[in-house]
TrEMBL record:
NCBIfam families: rarD. Pfam families: EamA (PF00892). PANTHER family: ACYL-MALONYL CONDENSING ENZYME-RELATED, SOLUTE CARRIER FAMILY 35 MEMBER G2-RELATED. Belongs to the EamA transporter family. Keywords: Cell membrane, Membrane, Transmembrane, Transmembrane helix, Transport. This is Protein RarD.
Length: 312
């Protein structure tokens, strides 16, 4: 009896690991996708991403027969406004990320996602009134020193990194407030619905003005741009499945796969320069990440404190 009950648990955990790892691998390899795209601005790419994400999400809703649950979400006015705010935050995140990759700042983008868990911790304290544990305080302190070192070394504030970290941190916070209202696919679809009028209007204006990369692209380029809908929705859905099957500590450990791959791509594929002060700054961030990981691993074992609310 014990063997028959243990097997499904292991299977669910393994399935969650595959989903989580796949999601973060896709996010980590995303800069390589940008290398294949036709010449396009960050804002236009975000507009294209919104339109094709909506198309892909609607097709998935039809395929999975979730339209009834999706339409029911429109009756929850509070959740609708919260998802509207979430859509603005994720659009800001997408725009910053596209700008970073298209202007040769992949390393700065990876730094933003390394910092993101520390930002999530800070938001938990400031907004949710959570209390920090000792290792979390140390992580926040080390990350703060890292930002100061990078600011001095670069001669400017690493605004792309901080913008990515805080926009995604606030996005996760808003999604946390939405809670279990509807399905993950339904929520993502509503977020794209909120953004579609603005995205469509901007793309139409570019087309009329003769500046559209989308309407001037050849067939391979058009297919690559259309694929942005798939690369947006698929990892988010995989992440949603992993979040239901894995403990927070495991999911938190997996999330560093994405910025690590981005860092490797920025260094080896995009050939970005890494001066000494940037190595020091990144090293400090990685130390902070280690403290966060150790803290995540300790909580399930000790059981001394409840598991913190999951963001996203």
């Amino acid at each position: 009896m014990s063997l028959s009950t243990a097997k499904p648990i292991r299977s669910e955990h393994s399935y969650g690991l595959i989903q989580g790892t796949s999601a973060y691998l896709i996010w980590g390899m995303l800069p390589a996708y940008f290398l294949l795209l036709p010449a396009i601005s960050a804002l236009e790419f975000v507009g294209v991403r919104v339109i094709f994400s909506l198309v892909f999400c609607l097709l998935l809703l039809a395929f999975t027969r979730q339209f009834k649950q999706f339409l029911a979400m429109f009756r929850d006015a509070k959740a609708m406004w919260q998802l509207g705010l979430a859509s603005v935050l994720i659009a800001a995140n997408w725009t910053l990320y596209a700008l970073a990759v298209l202007t040769g700042h992949v390393l700065e983008a990876s730094l933003g996602y390394f910092i993101n868990p520390i930002v999530a911790i800070l938001l938990g304290v400031v907004v949710l009134k959570e209390k920090l544990r000792r290792l979390q305080w140390i992580a926040v302190g080390v990350a703060t020193v890292a930002v100061i070192v990078l600011t001095v070394g670069l001669g400017r504030v690493p605004w792309i990194s901080l913008g990515l970290a805080f926009s995604f941190g606030f996005y996760g916070l808003v999604k946390n407030k939405v809670g279990q209202s509807g399905t993950a696919l339904g929520s993502l679809t509503i977020e794209t619905v909120w953004l579609t009028p603005l995205a469509f209007g901007y793309l139409l204006w570019l087309a009329v003005d003769g500046q559209s990369a989308l309407f001037s692209a050849d067939v391979p380029g058009l297919l690559l741009l259309a694929g942005s809908g798939i690369i947006t929705a698929v990892p988010l859905l995989l992440f949603g499945g992993a979040a239901r099957r894995l403990p927070l500590s495991t999911l938190g450990s997996l999330q560093f796969l994405a910025p690590l791959l981005q860092f490797i791509l920025g260094l080896l594929v995009f050939g970005e320069h890494m001066p000494f002060e940037r190595w020091v700054g990144f090293a400090l961030v990685w130390v902070a990440v280690i403290f966060v990981l150790v803290d995540m691993m300790r909580i399930p074992r000790t059981g001394s404190m409840p598991e913190p609310k999951r963001l996203g």
